[in-house]
Every structure is written in C-alpha cells, then in structure tokens.
Amino acid sequence: AEDYLQFAQMLANGGEWKGVRLLSPRSVELMRSELVPSTTPGLAVGVGYGLGVRVIVDPAARNSLLSQGSFGWSGAFGTHFWVDPKERGIGVLM
Which residues are within 8 A (CB) of 27 and not within 5 positions of it... i.e. 6 or more apart? Predict the structure, then answer.
C-alpha cells in the first residue's frame, strides 16, 4: 500500500518523487488526457481513458465525488487509486 501511495504522489507531483524525475511531464500529461473519448461505445458514462488510466471527464454523469480531470485505476482484486489534481488530493484503497 505504501508503494502504491508513493506512486500516486509521484503522479500528483507531475512525475517527480522526492526531487527525482521518474516520468516526464509529457507522460503524466498523456495519462491525464482523454485519449479514448468517453463517447466511445461500451465505456461507462462520464469516463474516458488516458495513457494507462481512467480519466473522469464528467463527474455528475459518473456519479463521482472526484473532480473533472481526476485519473487513476481500479484493479481486479478491489484495489483503487486516484489523483485529483483540482483538489490536490490522492487516494489509495486496498
């Protein structure tokens, strides 16, 4: 859980962790961007996909408390993480 938290903090910091750049700003930007639009057939309402993560594009339609532009992932065994850039918050649930 601590490693996952540090990963989320690194993403919230634009790709840096403890002063060390691990991901380029462009990589983090691509993760946060809606590359696969929420209008794609078969996707959940209000959700698009960036580079390897889900992106909240319409919180009201998604019935989400996360802000528009929040991004993260939910794993098969109930793990969840998200980064909410607007509220400057992160979450990790195991």
Answer: 15, 51
Task: State the CB neighbour count (10 A cutoff) for residue 54.
Answer: 19
Residue-wise pLDDT for 25-51, tens only, equals 999 999 999 999 999 999 889 999 999
Determine the 3-state secondary structure of 21 from DSSP: strand
What token pair was written down for 86?
């607007």
Q: What are phi and psi of 55, to 5 degrees?
A: -125, 130
CA distance 23 to 26: 8
N- to C-terminal Cα separation, the chain? 7
